[in-house]
Amino acid sequence: MKFMLCLKRKKPLKWITSIGNPSRVQKVFQESLVEQAKASSDESEALRFALNRGEDSIKYYEALAEQTEDNKEKRFYLALSREKRNHYLIILDSIEYLTAPAGWLQLHEKTLLEG
C-alpha cells in the first residue's frame, strides 16, 4: 500500500532506498531480453512471452525474500512478488480470452449454454 502511494506521489526512490542498502540493487533484465521482446504480430505469442517473464520475476522476488534477513526487505520483495503474480493472472486470463473466447465468456459472464 505504501509502495503504491509513493509511486503516485512520484517519490518511490526515497522510500525504496530507505528500506535497504541501495548498493545491493541489481539489474533485473538482461540486455538479451530486449532482443527477445521485439514486436510480434501474434497477440498470444506476445502474451506468452510476458507470461514467461512474469513467472521468472515471481521466482526472482521470492528468492530474494528468502535470502534476506531484514524483515522490511523481505516484506518489500514479497509485495513485489504478489504484484507480479497479479500481473501473471491477468496475462493468463488474456490468453484464455484469445484462445477460447466462448469458454472465457462462460466463466466470466456466468452464461449457460443452450442447445
TrEMBL record:
<dbReference type="InterPro" id="IPR012347">
    <property type="entry name" value="Ferritin-like"/>
</dbReference>
<dbReference type="InterPro" id="IPR009078">
    <property type="entry name" value="Ferritin-like_SF"/>
</dbReference>
<protein>
    <submittedName>
        <fullName>Rubrerythrin</fullName>
    </submittedName>
</protein>
